[in-house]
Amino acid sequence: MITLTHISKVFPARRRQVAVAALDDVSLRVERGQVMGIVGPSGSGKSTLARIVNLLERPTTGTVVVDGLELTSLSAGELNRARRGIGMIFQQFNLLDSRTALANVELPLALAGVGRAERRSRATALLERVGLADKLDAHPAQLSGGQRQRVAIARALAPRPNVLLCDEATSALDPVSTTSVLRLLRELTDELDLTTVLITHEMDVVKRACDHVTLLEDGRVVDAGALGDVVSRPDSPLATRLLPRPERPVGEQVVEITVGGAEHDVVLTELIRRYDVQVAVLAGSVETLGDQRFGRLQVRLDGAPAEVRAALDHLAGRPELREAVA
Ligand SMILES: Nc1ncnc2c1ncn2[C@@H]1O[C@H](COP(=O)(O)OP(=O)(O)OP(=O)(O)O)[C@@H](O)[C@H]1O
Question: GO BP, one example (predicted)?
């Protein structure tokens, strides 16, 4: 679990450069088993935030607690040990070109003093798990981008961390590799009960792999929450980026409904059964967010005014639905 409390980071002024407030009072919590997407425009502080989680960058103020340890209060030796519990992968993979895939994955284990035989068996098992059983002896130059990122994931997981930080991990990959790496990250989070943070500038990555999201702008958190909550919050700046909103409804008796799961069918069928109304779907968008489907539909209700009114009242009474009667 990661808990950041009131984190601020100021990069002090240097010659010919003014001071930069990269993060301003950021508080954030990621539980085990969650995949948190951190999104935001270029320069909003995403990478700084990732580097603060493992204290590669020290916050100017605020505390960083990872799995119950307050990293900000540890000695250098203690911090080194704690960092083994935090794996990290990067856009550019950062593999050693002169070493095989197997040797790359073994490296952090060697540094941690793990014996040769155990090193080999753990690294082999991890490379098999990420789908590279036949590439143990390949060098990075002989691997595709997606395969290199899989080696990097195996290497990050070798010390058996509880936390995995991914900084633009799929930004250099083609769409097919992106899909398989995101799926792998999601699966590994579930299998190993990891706390995973995905730094990305792509909303699509959030939609496909994350269950929670935080939006940074100018170093501040401007939106955060579980995807299912964010999409149905009217004032959320991320809601329509996750689930596009159809053009504003025209005419009377038009309602907009935002629901998760298979609820659409249930909601519409229920209306038709209970009330003497006809329901026409005018527009809508449906997205799979994480492993759940969400939809935003505009529907028009036709029928006798009293029946339509009753149907609208019924919709308004359901908390997961939002009414937008024109
Ligand atoms: N070492 C540093 N020294 C001075 N300023 C820095 C340093 N690192 C980052 N910054 C500044 O802090 C701000 C946030 O940078 P950061 O790299 O965290 O943003 P980002 O959201 O990850 O951007 P991008 O998506 O472009 O990578 C930027 O204004 C950047 O110029």
Answer: amino acid transport
Residue 37, C-beta contacts closer than 8 angstroms, at least 6 positions apart = 198, 200, 205, 206, 209, 210, 212, 213, 214
Question: Which among 304, 101, 103 has a CA at the least distance from the CA of 312?
Answer: 304
Residue 299: phi, psi to the nearest 5? -125, 150
In terms of CATH architecture, what is 245-325?
Answer: 2-Layer Sandwich (3.30)
- Give the distance (Å) from ligand 1 centre to CA of residue 167: 13
pTM of the entire structure? 0.87
Which sequence spans correspond to the domains of the chain? 2-238, 245-325
Q: Element (H or E) spanning 41, and its range? A: none
> Has residue 326 got a pLDDT over 60?
no
Atom of ligand 1 nearest to the CA of 199: 22
- Is CATH 3.40.50.880 the classification given to domain 2-238? no
- Among 39, 47, 171, which is best to mutate for testing ligand 1, by the most ligand atoms less than 8 A from CB? 47
Q: What is the pLDDT of residues 284-293, one digit of tens each?
A: 888 888 777 8
Q: How far is CA 68 from CA 63, 162, 198, 205, in A?
A: 12, 12, 21, 29
